[in-house]
UniProtKB/TrEMBL annotation:
Its EC number is 1.2.4.4. This is 3-methyl-2-oxobutanoate dehydrogenase (2-methylpropanoyl-transferring). Belongs to the BCKDHA family. The keyword DNA-binding does not apply. It comes from Capsella rubella.
Length: 509
């Protein structure tokens, strides 16, 4: 009869784990044995499950627990960490907290291999052996591909079928991106641009992934995804306007070149800071989920971005909140001049997904058909199943990291040349569409000639277009500029007036 427990006062100076709690436990256990003994003669050598079950019934009957599961939940609750001096609490509450500790040791005499405990996160089996999880698996995670290096379909390959129209557009956009990169790169070398970064060698990741997405999907890029914008309809003139920072640039000249953005095309403006876009994408994905949108968020980043804390925080957040977001990592082997071997010991990026509870896949990033199929499938799962997906695209950055970099200082020119020829994503995909009768040498020549002409004209127009007004440097943040911002504007104007030779003459003041 546990009514005695209700009447017994508790000292205000006992620790939660004091001997009094232990005595309450023994009283309760004795009470259970007494109840059992009234209905059936038996020895006191009872299996733990018997007296545990009857104890739950007593708690339910005498103390108002709605069900046995309700009582069981009370027994599983662990006592909070409290200071030694505390106010007396309900005796039954202390009794249940202590019981949870006692019940955890039940069944010690049983075979350890048969025990399963429902720990936080799910049931866990026990083992009598000392087993550490290996730091790496014996074999690397395989890489999904559809086309071999010669552009031929791999036997029994599984992929999402693409129409002739989509396939030709993918290839045409890849060629356009390559030509745009080459012309802008040369323009920077001529001193006409301050900075540029190419996507040479990574065209398939850009274009094929964009083709598999919906225009309603929100993009959070790094600075090597202009192909996604190109696919969505961003014109060559718009690219040129941004790189030259003229008055037609949507960022009003306040961003570095290649830091594009488009509200109309659901493409968030590129941030130069590494990995900050990743947690932003997760928040946007959760918002899409709350609004029940048939869309997902997609964020791109390099292998170097996974060494930032933002990547890990975003992965965990996405998994716990079940956010429909695609994490697309371009693992091109180099974070500027830092090789992956100096970044992490794990098997690339794909294995990091499992650690956070995220479904993941490794894809050949130089295989446009594989990238399209993987992203298409991942998008469906993300939206329908409300889950994040991690895609590691293995590729190689053929170009320098940017115009501020000379990659031959840390890797051989022969290595770069081999990747550019043997593993070129454009030539591989072209071979496949030609084998289907969808492309020809004549069409190739016409495309390259037309794009080059359009690109040079866009460059000429952007270069001659007037720059944004100086006042635009200080607008769009505050409705009424604060005094410190007004002071900065005054100092800039004063400096330009004092040293006009050091500043561009075509910037309206």
């Amino acid at each position: 009869n546990t009514s005695k427990l209700k009447q017994e006062p508790l000292s205000t100076h006992h620790h939660p784990c004091s001997c009094r709690s232990s005595s309450i436990f023994h009283l309760a256990k004795k009470s259970v044995f007494s109840q059992i003994g009234k209905t059936k003669k038996m020895t006191l050598r009872l299996r733990s499950s018997s007296w545990k079950s009857n104890l739950l019934k007593i708690l339910r009957h005498n103390h108002g627990f709605g069900s046995a599961s309700h009582a069981a939940r009370h027994l599983r609750q662990k006592p909070p960490h409290e200071p030694t001096l505390r106010v007396s609490q309900n005796p039954i509450s202390r009794f249940c907290n202590t019981m949870s500790e006692k019940l955890s040791s039940i069944g010690e005499h049983e075979d350890a291999n048969t025990q399963v405990m429902d720990f936080p996160g799910g049931k866990v089996a026990f083992t009598p052996e000392i087993q550490f999880i290996s730091e790496s698996s014996k074999e690397r995670v395989p890489c999904y591909r559809v086309l071999d290096d010669n552009g031929q379909l791999i036997t029994n390959s599984q992929f999402v079928q693409v129409s002739e129209e989509v396939a030709v557009k993918i290839y045409s956009n890849m060629v356009t991106l390559q030509i745009m990169d080459n012309i802008f790169y040369e323009a920077q070398r001529q001193g006409r641009l301050s900075f540029y970064a190419t996507a040479i060698g990574e065209e398939a990741i850009n274009i094929a992934s964009a083709a598999a997405l919906s225009p309603e999907d929100v993009i959070f890029p790094q600075y090597r995804e202009p192909g996604v914008l190109l696919w969505r309809g961003f014109t060559l003139q718009e690219f040129a306007n941004q790189c030259f920072g003229n008055k037609s640039d949507y960022g009003k000249g306040r961003q570095m070149p290649v830091h594009y953005g488009s509200n109309k095309l659901n493409y968030f403006t590129v941030s130069a800071t590494i990995a900050t876009q990743i947690p932003n994408a997760v928040g946007a994905a959760y918002s899409l989920k709350m609004d029940r949108k048939d869309a997902c968020a997609v964020t791109y980043f390099g292998d170097g971005g996974t060494s930032e804390g933002d990547f890990h925080a975003a992965m965990n957040f996405a998994a716990v909140m079940e956010a429909p977001v695609l994490f697309i990592c371009r693992n091109n082997g180099w974070a500027i001049s830092t090789p992956t071997s100096d970044q992490f010991r794990s098997d690339g990026i794909v294995v990091k997904g499992r650690a956070y509870g995220i479904r993941s896949i490794r894809v050949d990033g130089n295989d446009a058909l594989a990238m399209y199929s993987a992203v298409h499938s991942a998008r469906e799962m993300a939206i329908k199943e409300h889950r994040p997906i991690l895609i590691e695209a293995l590729t190689y950055r053929v170009g320098h990291h940017s115009t501020s970099d000379d990659s031959t200082r840390y890797r051989s020119a022969d290595e770069i040349e081999w990747w550019n020829k043997a593993r070129n994503p454009l030539s591989r995909f072209r071979t496949w569409i030609e084998s289907n009768g969808w492309w020809s040498d004549e069409e190739e020549s016409d495309l390259r000639s037309r794009v080059k002409k359009e690109m040079l004209e866009a460059l000429r127009v952007a270069e001659k277009t007037e720059k944004p007004n100086l006042k635009d440097m200080f607008s769009d943040v505050y409705d009424v500029p604060p005094s410190n911002l007004r002071e900065q504007e005054r100092l800039v104007r004063q400096t330009i007036k004092s040293h006009p030779q050091d500043y561009p003459s075509d910037v309206p003041l």
